[in-house]
Give the backbone structure.
Amino acid sequence: MPNKVTLPSLFVFLAGLTACGTPTSSTTLSVNLTTTPNPASAVPSQGVTYTVTNPDNTVSTYDYSFKTSFTVNMQETGGNALTITSVNLVVQQASGGIVITPSGGDREYFRFNSAAGGNTLAAHGNAAMSFDVWYSLPSKGQEALITVTLTFSDANNNTYTQTVQEKVAP
């Protein structure tokens, strides 16, 4: 009598084959992110500008209204060395830490510079990245919520993304 392979048993066999190549190491990120100071304070900005193309195709140049500075502190707690592969930052106008979405086509304008001592975060290690942020808000105020997004990769080429928020006091 010939052996019969049923569809369910074929799926079990194929699932077992694909599991052979999966990494056995952790696939979760164990990094604590904090910011200092929190909240940050802002000062009037001088000498840093941005340009806006108007609906009639004219170009206007404006000074950013405010500048703030802070540091993101990273602490790896899972025993997994990581490489920091990218960083992004977004500034949003806020009140009491609550994002206030601009209306009527208005938008936030911002620019940032960052500095880090390297792109690695050792297992159970610490690293820090400092930021200078220039911004202008439709509300004309200085209170903002800044979201920093960091992407990490490990030795198995797993990637992880984590965010931390920094409040800018009014």
Remarks:
- Residues 7-19 form the longest helix (13 residues).
- Residues 8 and 14 are 10 Å apart (CA to CA).
- Helices lie at 7-19.
- The chain has one domain: 27-168.
